[in-house]
Amino acid sequence: MANQTIITAATDEHIPFADLYLSDIDPRTIVKDGAISALAANIQEHGLIQNPAGLRDATGEVAVVAGGRRYRALADDPRFQTITVRMAPNQVTTAFWATSENAQREGLAFGRRNP
Question: CA 39 to CA 34: how far, in whole Å?
């Protein structure tokens, strides 16, 4: 029998931007010069496609654990006074979210698609 883990479902919540902060476990601690302003311009033109993920702390604020670049890009955009955040049910989940997708990330490839 396979070793199984019970997965607790995440929820989406509308959080005031002022109640968000960048978590220490967000893996994107170093960003290239101009990368955040370029992402902010892209979000302004096309909208926010993927919401950040977070965990509510003891004070009621929400630590952004995945989506730190998006969080930084939204900071000066007045349209995002409140944003939807995928809320983790616990700290174990946040640790997984903070690194999982980045560990699997591949470079973009443009051109013909494989069938």
Answer: 9
Tokens of 60: 């009621």
The answer to whether residues 26 and 66 touch, using CB atoms and an 8 Å cutoff, is: yes
| pTM of full prediction above 0.70 | yes
Amino acid identity of residue 95, one-letter, is: A
Q: What is the dihedral of CA 30, 46, 93, 54, to 10 degrees?
A: 80
Identify the top-confidence range among 2-6, 18-22, 27-31: 18-22
Confidence of residue 25 (pLDDT cuts 50, 70, 90): confident
- pLDDT at residue 33, as a whole number: 76
Can you tell me the distance from the alpha carbon of 53 to that of 101, in angstroms, rounded to the nearest whole number? 12
Whole-angstrom distance, CA of residue 93 vs CA of residue 110: 33
Per-residue tokens: 15: 């959080």
pLDDT exceeds 90 at position 112 = no
Q: Judging by beta carbons within 10 Å of its beta carbon (0-12, 13-18, 19+), is residue 64 exposed, middle or buried?
A: buried
